[in-house]
Write a structure and sequence with these properties.
Chain lengths: 658, 379
């Protein structure tokens, strides 16, 4: 008993302080109560809640971070990088530790613009909703100076980190922008969907073009790093981290695969230069023997380097308000009336069915009267045979074939055989199908009129095709009737250079058309570009290499231009003007490349689209596939005949057989 | 009887003076204090290990030596002489509190006037005030005659004691002021011939709390509010409490082991060596260690009360009650704060918290208890 009775000699007369003895039970009561309270609380915290608190202290110290995988490159057929990675500084912040002071401090430190602050706020809000403890990317691709400023001020910026990471970079600038695409941060909905696929909320994902369509090959696999931090979020040394973390601390990232395209960057550049002077255009160049795309141009374009994390609100507004719609891939997403380039459908249908012949002549007065309506031709051509009608692009000839012999549905049938009306299955940028109207289609809407067949015969009215479809159809014309599925990716290589998969040309169908019929059309095309009076020849002639082609001028159903459209008129871009088309190939006798040029609201096909094609072909046959011996001999030669087996030439790809 | 009491031990035949002194020294008290001091150093070593604060351990060892000297002085000098000088001592303490108000290093204590810088050392006059108040209480209550406790005299004395309390409260150091109040009240309840005046004073004090609330600084109010709802401001005032609870809880039954506390080692509890050493201890030694430390403190308090019971005069007994009350309230308030049962106030854990003034004063107080214990043997 500790509180024994006093034994000292000084207490001979009882306790010195008798009050204490009397009140001892109160002292004991208070003491025991305090002890019970404290021990009880210790029991509650350590014995009952211990496991939970333990987990929480560990989670305070051990953090996880994704290790970025290096994204695969996109290379052209010769290995020129179209999309690459470069080192960059990214600034991350942990939403949980983000406060108004942090925001103010970083804003003051870096002199952030309102735009950047809005972006940061949005991301922090999104991050808070998801996992407030996981650092999110707030400022991507910052310069060395900004990274250094933030690194030096980390103690004043709790939860902020600077990471040195690879960043997407497009070394060729806006070259083939629609094809390559760009990357942006994922949206809230995407983040929810992709989170369980190992994506980090703040990651950039492919948003357009190949970057989006081939995301799964390009991105590789992220690694995970687990590390320990102290209360201020500062990383602890490796030894401490090893002691705190059980299991693997680093699960390495797997780099993405490289895409090797069929596209030729040099030809792409030539094509883009050739359309530089027009406000809106599309160019598709394909190999007729394989269906491989050599160039794919859509104008107006955008700079993917800007789109990938550097687009300001003002720039975005400007791009979105552009009436030419820069974000729509004009080569394959949008469809347009094809005009006269579509006439081959009518001609082939007539020749196939024996409803027309090469030497049959029709008289063009310049006007074609049909049930009280006058359809006007581009001139009064007088007496023309089929080749002459092709050469001069006479409408009356084809209207006669269509309305008196073929009918709308036969034209539609032939058009569908050549791939119009259905997407080409390139698998990129929402490849559109276009529209090939039939009688049934019109009946469904209102009433079929014979005038619709007139329109369809010359690629007007409700007929709409994409530039890519036209290119693939002309490739089929060039190669004797094989319709290919267009191909843009040649093969996929792993980061170590090992080829993962090589894509073979894919045939959509063998079109059953008589070789003779094709030959007639091809001879007509030859005249267009090589004979005086041809709709293209009058606007220039390629002398290096024989070229065959067909021009088209697709009239627009005129409507009053809206006031704001006139105000926003860009580069003389007039939405009431016709679309200019040219489709053709070179060399005429042994086609190697098929070229389709489309100038949106460009005017006359012969005057606008053909010179562009001419410039591209001339550059191709002087720079890429030089022909020193090529002379202006087209006129001297006989009309080219299709060769069953073209002679193999070194730069030309081998003819692929299914 | 007192004379004989003094004479008896001296007459013991065949025992040298030294052996008699050794026998009279209160060894259980000394052993307990040394044990707690050792635990304190061990804990401080872990708390400051590997940080830029590691020199705090050396400083604390030096203060322990100073404390040891203070203990010996407080033991050797007769406490009755000290009690006679209590009035002077209290005046000195009040003087220092006024000096610290006028000259104190305001920046040192985060905008408050707690520290006095003498020769490079920061000392806290409020700690000295505790010692002096205890001696003053001994002087007040040394008279056994109930007739001496007239309401007027009592009121006068209490008013005198209110001076240092108010001065400390105005520093502002709410923790120490509250603690001094608790010491005075405890001693009053245990030493007054009749408890009723104390009951009245206490009730009056409780009624005065709303008035005190109005005079409190905003940060003090925030602390109290944060205590009531820690989640309201997790990185502000509630942060300490939350992190302290995490630390204690995560120790589980057997603790994480010496030097292994992540809460402690990685700075989740800022300044944990001053006000939160118990959370460091609880994290690393678990429920077993936490209860063990509580048990030692309980023994210490009980032992001091035991000395009070056997003291040879009222003054000695009151000193012991004062020291016991001071130790008890320090331990209870500090640990309750660590466990999230009390607001975060600057109340140290005796012998464990880092800080020279508190340490030396506690050593001196224990010296006084040893002194009382020694004198009953006739010294």
């Amino acid at each position: 008993m500790l509180l024994r009775s006093p034994a000292g000699p000084g207490s001979g007369n009882g306790p010195a302080l008798p009050e204490l003895r009397r009140r001892l039970k109160w002292v004991a009561l208070v003491g025991v109560a305090a002890l019970v309270l404290l021990v009880g609380r210790l029991w509650q915290l350590q014995v009952m809640g211990g496991e939970g608190y333990y987990e929480r202290t560990v989670s305070q110290v051990v953090k996880e971070r994704y290790l970025p995988s290096v994204r695969g490159k996109i290379l052209d057929r010769k290995g020129v990088a179209l999309a690459d990675n470069r080192p960059a500084f990214n600034i991350y912040a942990t939403p949980k530790q983000w406060k108004a002071e942090t925001r103010g401090e970083i804003s003051r430190l870096l002199g952030l613009s309102d735009d950047e602050l809005v972006k940061i706020d949005e991301r922090i809000t999104l991050g808070k909703k998801r996992d407030p403890k996981r650092p999110i990317l707030v400022l991507e691709d910052q310069g060395r100076d900004r990274a250094a400023l933030v690194s030096q001020a980390l103690t004043r910026l709790p939860g902020v980190e600077v990471q040195h990471e690879p960043y997407r970079y497009y070394p060729q600038g806006d070259l083939a922008a629609h094809l390559i695409g760009y990357m942006t941060q994922m949206t809230s909905a995407e983040a929810d969907r992709l989170a369980n696929q190992g994506y980090d909320t703040s990651e950039l994902v492919g948003r357009y073009g190949l970057e989006s369509a081939w995301e799964n090959y390009l991105r590789g696999k992220k690694g995970i790093e687990r590390f320990a931090v102290d209360a201020r979020g500062q990383r602890l040394d490796e030894k401490t981290a090893a002691a705190l973390i059980d299991g693997e601390r680093v699960m390495g990232a797997v780099p993405g695969a490289n895409l090797i395209l069929t596209v030729d960057a040099e030809l792409q550049r030539i094509a883009e230069k050739a359309v530089a002077h027009v406000p809106a255009a599309a160019v598709v160049i394909v190999e007729p023997k394989t269906g491989k795309i050599r160039a794919l141009v859509s104008k107006p374009s955008f700079d993917p380097n800007v789109m990938t994390g550097h687009l300001t609100r003002a720039e975005e507004t400007l791009l979105l308000s552009d009436p030419r719609k820069p974000f729509i891939d004009k080569a394959l997403r949008a469809s347009y009336p094809p005009g006269s380039v579509f006439k081959f459908v009518t001609a082939l249908a007539a020749l196939e069915d024996g409803q027309g012949a090469e030497d049959e002549s029709i008289f063009c007065t310049g006007v074609y009267e049909l049930s009280g309506t006058n359809f006007r031709c581009n001139a009064s051509h007088g007496k023309l045979d089929l080749l002459g009608a092709i050469k001069k692009s006479c409408n009356v000839y084809f209207w006669t074939l269509a309305t008196q012999r073929l009918g709308l549905d036969r034209i539609a049938e032939m058009a569908r055989l050549f791939g119009f009306g259905t997407p080409t299955n390139l698998g990129l940028n929402g490849d559109a199908g276009g529209r090939i109207p039939t009688k049934a289609w019109y009946e469904e809407r209102s009433r079929y009129k014979i005038g619709y067949a007139t329109n369809a015969a010359t690629g007007q009215g409700d007929v709409e095709v994409t530039v890519l479809q036209t290119a693939m159809a002309y490739a089929a014309l060039a190669n004797g009737g094989t319709l290919f599925v267009p191909q843009v990716v040649e093969r996929v290589d792993a980061s170590n250079g090992r080829t993962i998969v090589t894509y073979e040309p894919k045939i959509a169908r063998e079109i059953k058309v008589q070789t003779e019929a094709l030959d007639v059309w091809r001879r007509g095309m030859w005249k267009v570009t090589n004979e005086v009076g041809g709709s293209a020849y009058d606007h220039g002639h390629v002398s290096i290499v024989p070229v065959s082609g067909k021009t088209g001028t697709a009239e627009i159903r005129t409507r009053a231009r809206k006031k704001e459209e006139i105000e926003r008129d860009i580069d003389n871009w007039n939405p009431a003007r016709s679309h200019a088309w040219f489709a053709g190939w070179a060399p005429a006798d042994d086609p190697e490349i098929v070229i389709t040029v489309f100038v949106e609201h460009g005017g006359s096909g012969g005057k606008v689209a053909w010179p562009i094609a001419k410039r591209i072909l001339e550059a191709y046959y002087t720079k890429i596939d030089p022909r020193p011996g090529a002379t202006d001999d087209a006129g001297g030669k006989s009309v080219p005949k299709l060769k069953a087996k073209p002679a193999p030439r070194p730069p030309a790809p081998k003819p692929e057989t299914p | 009887m007192r004379d004989t009491g003094l004479a008896l031990p001296r007459a013991t035949v065949g025992v040298s003076r030294w052996r008699r002194f050794r026998a009279a020294v209160d060894w259980p008290l000394i052993v307990t204090v040394v044990l707690i001091g050792a635990i304190g150093l061990l804990n401080l070593y872990s708390a400051t290990r590997g940080t830029r604060h590691h020199e705090k351990f050396d400083t604390q060892v030096q203060w322990m030596i100073v404390g040891g000297i203070a203990f010996i002085i407080a033991t050797v000098v007769d406490y009755r002489a000290l009690v006679r000088l209590a009035g002077v001592g209290l005046c000195v303490a009040i003087g220092l509190l006024i000096v610290v108000r006028l000259l104190g290093d305001g920046a040192h204590g985060k905008g408050s006037y707690r520290w006095l810088n003498i020769g490079g050392m920061g000392i806290q006059p409020s700690e000295l005030a505790k010692l002096m108040v205890i001696l003053a209480l001994a002087k007040i209550f040394q008279d056994a005659d109930p007739s001496r406790y007239t309401p007027f005299r009592l009121g006068l004395h209490l008013l005198t004691l209110c001076i240092p309390i108010v001065l400390i409260g105005r520093q502002p150091d709410l923790g120490t002021a509250t603690l001094l109040t608790l010491i005075v009240l405890t001693v009053g309840f245990l030493a007054m011939p009749s408890v009723w005046p104390m009951v009245h004073v206490t009730l009056a004090g409780l009624l005065a709390i709303p008035i005190l609330w109005e005079t409190m600084h905003d940060y003090q109010k925030n602390r109290v509010l944060a205590f009531i709802d820690p989640s309201s401001d997790p990185t502000g005032n509630g942060w300490h409490t939350r992190q302290s609870i995490f630390a204690v809880g995560s120790g589980k039954i057997f603790g994480k082991g010496f030097g292994e506390g992540t809460q402690n080692q990685f700075d989740f509890l800022p300044e944990h060596w001053t006000d939160f050493p118990y959370s460091v201890w609880a994290e690393e030694w678990g429920f077993i260690g936490s209860v063990f430390l509580l048990a030692i403190f309980s023994f210490l308090v009980v032992w001091i009360l035991n000395v009070a019971m056997s003291a040879r005069d009222r003054a000695g007994a009151v000193i012991c009650i004062g020291v016991a009350a001071m130790t008890f309230w320090h331990v209870v308030v500090n640990i309750a704060m660590v466990l999230g049962l009390a607001p975060v106030v600057g109340v140290t854990l005796p012998f464990i918290s880092y800080g020279g003034s508190s340490l030396v004063v506690f050593f001196a107080c224990m010296g006084l208890v040893a002194n009382v214990s020694l004198r009953k043997h006739g010294y």
